[in-house]
Amino acid sequence: MKKLHLLRAHLINAVPTLDRDPDRLLTFVEEGSIEFRRGRDLTHEYRFVAQLVLTDFTGDLDIVMLPLLQWLAEYQPDLDPSEALTFEAEILANRAVDLAMRVPLTERVIARVDCDSGTIQAEHSLPHFPSHACMATHWQLATRENTDQEWSVAAEWDAPHG
Q1: Domain range for residue 14?
Q2: What sections of the chain are H helices per DSSP?
Q3: Which residues are registered as beta bridge partners of 51?
Q4: pTM here?
C-alpha cells in the first residue's frame, strides 16, 4: 500500500501544523480486496478504501481538501467524481474538529514468475498523471472570508510530483 504512504506524505507536507505534528494524521485501510486473474504471473491489484483521520483540526477545510484533491487528480484520476471522497467531522471545543475522510484507492502490483529460477519479481506500479496544463511545482492556497478582505496565504506545499 505504497500509494497510501505517498498520500500521507503529501498531506503532511501540505497541511500547516502536520509537519510539526504528523501523528495527528491517522491512516487506516477499510474494505480491502485483491483483484487477481489466474495465469502464469501473480500480477494483482489492491483495492481499498483509505481512511484518513485528522485530529484537532482548527483550520479552513479547504486547507486539507484542495491538496487532497490535487493528489487524487494526479494519482487516482479514474475515480468516479461523485464517489471520489467522503468525509465526516466531529465538532470539538474551540472550533476544532476531528475530520475523517474516505478515499477509494487502487494499486497494481506486477508480479512476474520465473519457473526456471524459482523467483518472483514484484513491482508496485504507481503511475501518476500530471496535468500538463499546470506545471507549477510549488503551490500556495490563498483564502479570504469575504470580498472586502485581502487574500491571505493559508497553506503552501510542493506539488505531489515536485
Answers
A1: 2-158
A2: 2-14, 62-75
A3: 28, 102
A4: 0.83
